[in-house]
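Before a colleague's protein record goes any further, I have to sign it off. My question to you is simply how this chain folds and whether the tokens agree. I do not need a full report, just your reasoning and any doubts. This is what I was given:
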Amino acid sequence: MKVYKTKIKVCGLKHPLEVKCAADYGAKWYGMIFEKDSPRFISYKQAEVLLSSTPNCIEPVAVTVNPSYSKIQHLYKLGFKCIQLHGNESTNFCKSLKKEFNFKIIKAISVKSLKDLEYANSYKNSTDWILFDYKDDQLAGGTGKSFDWNLLEKNSLNFNWILSGGLDYNNIVVAIKSTMAKAVDVSSGVEFKKGIKSTELIKKFCNKINNI
């Protein structure tokens, strides 16, 4: 199996064909969003269909915001092994999920200033990856906006991190070269309409990265 330099996560998928496309073009993860106010929301029933047809080369990620214990249990029973936390979950909460469910954890941190990057550092021992996204007071993610990538150059980050926020096939090469990101996350940047993915855009996005 070919190993790609930059790891790719495609978020907000709802259909098996989208998952197959992401897997075929080298994505490491794909995200399913379990927040009802998101245009990318997926039900547990829909998630079961995706999980049953997921190729071995790509890992499904359950994306949540301040999830309840019962939701965590349900996601675990569905078969998820990786969870993305997009709210204000504490480091102790992350540790407890690892201990009880053995989840791999991606913790999203919204970025506006260097203080946010310093705050992210506190999660490095309780998570597997930290995802940097645009800071929006109204939305937890999926804004389609980028934060100031220059902030990443001013901070030595000694943990695994994922670049997110406003990425698409037009800016992804510049984003990777300027931030030296080892992993990237895309959602709205591969949609032809809000909440509706385009397999063609997923292909274009992944190909741009894989050809760097």
Observations:
- The helical segments are 16-24, 44-52, 69-78, 91-101, 114-121, 150-153, 172-179, 199-210.
- The longest helix spans residues 199-210.
- DSSP finds eight helices and ten strands in the chain.
- The beta strands are 7-11, 29-33, 59-64, 82-85, 104-111, 129-134, 161-163, 183-186, 191-193, 196-197.
